[in-house]
Amino acid sequence: MTPQPEREAAVTAPFPPRHRASTRIWHWVNFACIVILFMSGLNISNAHPWLYWGDAGFLPEDAWFAVMRFPGWATIPDYYSLAAARDWHLTAALPYAVGLLFIWISMLANRHFCRDIATRGREWDRNAIKQDVRNHLRFEFDPADGKYNFFQKLSYGLVYGVMLPLMIFTGMAISPGWEPALGWMIELMGGRQSARSLHFITAWAIFVFFVLHVALVFVSGPIGQMRSMILGNRK
Amino acid sequence: MSLHRRDILLAMGVTLVGACSKVADSGGSTVFDTAEDLHRKAQRLFQSRTALVKEYSPEDISPFFRGNGTTRPAEASYALSAANGFADWRLTVGGLVDNPLAFSIENIRRLPQRTQITRHDCVEGWSAIGQWTGPQLSLVLDAAGLQDSARFIVFRCADELNGNAYYESIDLLDAYHPQTIIAHQLNGEPLPIRNGAPLRMRIERQLGYKHAKYLTGIEAVASLDGIGGGEGGYWEDRGYQWYAGI
Questions:
Q1: How far is CA A230 from the centre of its chain?
Q2: At B85, which CATH number?
Q3: Interface pTM (ipTM) of the complex?
Q4: Is A113 left (phi over 0), alpha (psi -120 to 50) or beta?
Q5: Residues of chain A numbered 193-232 and touching chain B (CB < 8 Å)
Q6: B151 phi and psi angles, rounded to 5 deg
Q7: Chain-centre distance of CA A40, in angstroms?
Q8: What is the pTM of this model?
């Protein structure tokens, strides 16, 4: 019933789809999940806005960081409710985790990762990186071959490989029910309160990526970019 | 072609928006409940039923163990009992059991004991480490003889929060976990009042609100309906998750 997107595109468009269907579907599902997770997470943070290192911590004077109180417009729900925020957070965590597993499997299977995201040895050359920085400062982002430039590969690699999975692992490390199975991982993170701090820091790292990502979409032709992420075809 | 695909994506978008607005109204509780169930099942699928949480060394113990929720029950009977060193305190074990039992604190102390240094994780986000001593709940349940129809264990408490009796409940899997104990000691001393004197539950794989304090009764039931607000606990009746392993 559903047409094979790749094949159809090949027939009707001179270019292959810029983003595969799997990438596009995951991108938007993941976007929805991240918005819910981030905003409900800010509500949860308001319940005890202090961060600690190590296994334990509950006194504000032992905290390494006192988090601001996030206003209602930034949280889900838009009033303080730890119970409701946890409902949203724990529910969105499931499609988020399954989605990340799905995109990793599909991008390894369809070679999207190896072809487009994994950096090559020569790209780590100092002069090449300098050139990339210069191009970025001139707002020239697309390398001549139409592939991702070095910083795109690096940031997508960090997001896919480090930040997004780390949110799942630190989230599980905070959950007391996972403790028997994941004790070693919690220890590796430096204890439950360290895992909680990492969960918070990584969430904001993803937020920074999100802001840059959206800003760069705007300066690089937002209509074309949205088109290719929604419909997939280049022209 | 793109029209066709656009239709599909549009339909997906509408479904997503529809799903979200559904979550937002009362029907949403079923989506949230399903997610809670999936988390619980995932945790139990990947771990053995009796897998233990980490036990710490004495030097890891928090110098002060924070009390949360009720830190001193307001009831006059509690104050009176506390003044007498809880000599008249009774813990009853009843409901769907063959032999209803009643324990004094002295009886509880005479049972085989388990001592464990564990981390207490509050739903708010903080953690504290303490050493807890008491008999395993499984011991008491076996002595009372659980009937086949029992599916949950309900904990009755002496304290009220905002005029409502505190209570909690767990399923039999957590009730029979080796680290689920009826604690009467914290760090080698009788429980301080702020931490639930004279008896409190330790349910180590779940968040703090499950660990009922000021324990007066253990009740085996087939269903949580009709108990309190019917959601299985004081905080659960106020929207919190019944399964607090997440």
A1: 18
A2: 3.90.420.10
A3: 0.87
A4: alpha
A5: 193, 196, 230-232
A6: -125, -25
A7: 16
A8: 0.89
